[in-house]
Amino acid sequence: MCDASLRVPITYDPAYGPRPAGGGRRGPAPKQVTCSGESTVTKLKNEKELVRKAIDLGVEYGEKRGAVEFEPTDSATDKLEYIYRLLIHDGLITPIPEDQVSQKAIRHKLAIWASKQ
């Protein structure tokens, strides 16, 4: 269940844009808390298929580049993480903040990448 007391009310000041209610123009804005059950990431309609496509494209890209040779026994999780790190290293995608990196976030990021290929 969501605890509404954890939410930070936001007001709008035309001169300064959105800011936390209660004043204070100095210092960083408080973090907004997302309650469980609410998604901050927009789910893609066909994300599963795009993740499969991302694996295929990423494996092909990595092997063509000569950076890696995947084995049939490599798990999808390992492939996804390696492809994600390789694409960041080559500057093809922007990295997710390190404290937010998770398998779900990597899958979503690579699904978006695959949808643009």
Please characterize this protein's 3D structure:
The protein is mainly alpha-helical and 117 residues long. The protein has two domains: 1-38, no CATH class; 47-115, Up-down Bundle (Four Helix Bundle (Hemerythrin (Met), subunit A)). Helices cover 39% and strands 7% of the residues. It contains three helices and two strands; from the N terminus they run ββααα. It has helices at 47-65, 76-89, 103-115; strands at residues 10-13, 17-20. Strands 1-2 form a two-stranded antiparallel ribbon. Strand 1 and strand 2 (17-20) form a beta hairpin. The longest helix has 19 residues, at 47-65. The chain is globular. The model is unreliable at 29-39 (pLDDT under 50).
Question: Gist?
Answer:
With 117 residues, the protein is mainly α. The chain has helices at 47-65, 76-89, 103-115, and strands at 10-13, 17-20. Residues 29-39 have low confidence and may be disordered.
**Can you write the helix and strand succession as a string?**
EEHHH
User: Can you tell me the residue ranges where pLDDT is under 50 for at least 5 consecutive residues?
Assistant: 29-39
> Remind me, CATH topology of the largest domain?
Four Helix Bundle (Hemerythrin (Met), subunit A)
Give the CA-based shape.
Answer: globular
Gyration radius, in Å = 19 Å
Distance between the termini: 39 Å
Number of strands: 2
What's the CATH C level of the largest domain? Mainly Alpha
Oligomeric grouping of the chains: single chain
Q: What is the correct CATH architecture of the largest domain?
A: Up-down Bundle
User: Helix amount, in percent?
Assistant: 25-40%
Main sheet summary? 2 strands, antiparallel
Mean of residue pLDDT values: 78
Number of domains: 2
Strand order of the largest sheet: 1-2
Structural class comes to mainly alpha
Strand content: 5-15%
